[in-house]
């Protein structure tokens, strides 16, 4: 049932090239320059008329929402707010009939997300679901939606659900950008082609497994860890930290790299591993200077870089190389080695990877 893997989590990490393809199958038509998603086409006017998009979710799904915020705003120029479902539902939020709410949930059963959806509906918003489990409560409660076709996710730590959520949300953002005319035609075509290449690039990113294992052996006993990223990869830093803490019980925090100097840099010493997501992208020079700041305080630097990188490589203690892609799609690749690192660290610490203590696969209580 684990398909020859030691754990469901590892199996699910390795399924990502194929499930990302399943997620865009029938939707992404790169050669024709088309994106076809019934849930979007049927409700296109609602999206086009939206004054803003509110994204509500919990945990890893909330991190996918943060990635989507950057993508929607960049591609479709629609203002986006991302909120924890638990905060949204209890704080008397402003919801207008011109709001489109996107609820993201792997299980489709998360109690807080479900309650937030009901609240948004009561106030007249149009609610669109991004779920993995077909027929789940959230998929039934929403007005329309798009499934991530990730297949059953058994490991409690969410992996393939995250990358397929980002895939679906990217498709939606691209379709809206096309309809709104906020992206020129050649960029649109370029993104479709880039997206189609993602599964094979994820497969390439999975080849970092041995490097990840070697690095895991060095840092498995660290009591703390920091994860840093900028732009599209800031949420990946949050997700990297969550993955580490939930399965290995190492205290980890994710930050936007530039926030370091506003406090967390005080934590840096020779015992602190700092995982930095530093692909060749916009503001690369900024992340290089962030790395220099950490290095000058003796922090240990483990960097996820684009293949062929030299600048970060010269500074870092360890590098993990991933293929190049466009900035907006990079989270689909940078996430992979961080999943592998957490997995190996947890295994080396003899933790129950698939069923970490105190956690349940779907959180149906408040
Ligand atoms: C983290 C994890 C949780 C879930 C969260 C939301 O690995 O699994 O943080 O992401 O409980 O669950 P769903 O997406 O089912 O609503």
From TrEMBL:
Domain SIS, first and last residues per copy: 43-182, 215-356
Localization (cell): Cytoplasm
EC numbers, comma separated: 2.6.1.16
GO molecular function: glutamine-fructose-6-phosphate transaminase (isomerizing) activity
Keyword list, A-Z: Aminotransferase, Cytoplasm, Glutamine amidotransferase, Repeat, Transferase
Active site, UniProt feature: 361 (for fru-6p isomerization activity)
Top-rank taxon, per record: Bacteria
Reactions that this protein is recorded to catalyse: D-fructose 6-phosphate + L-glutamine = D-glucosamine 6-phosphate + L-glutamate
Coiled coil, from the record: none
Transmembrane segments: none
Function: Catalyzes the first step in hexosamine metabolism, converting fructose-6P into glucosamine-6P using glutamine as a nitrogen source.
Subunit structure, as described in the record: Homodimer.
UniProt protein name: Glutamine--fructose-6-phosphate aminotransferase [isomerizing]
Source organism per UniProt: Flavobacterium suzhouense
Organism lineage string: Bacteria, Pseudomonadati, Bacteroidota, Flavobacteriia, Flavobacteriales
Full-sequence range covered: 250 to 615 of 615
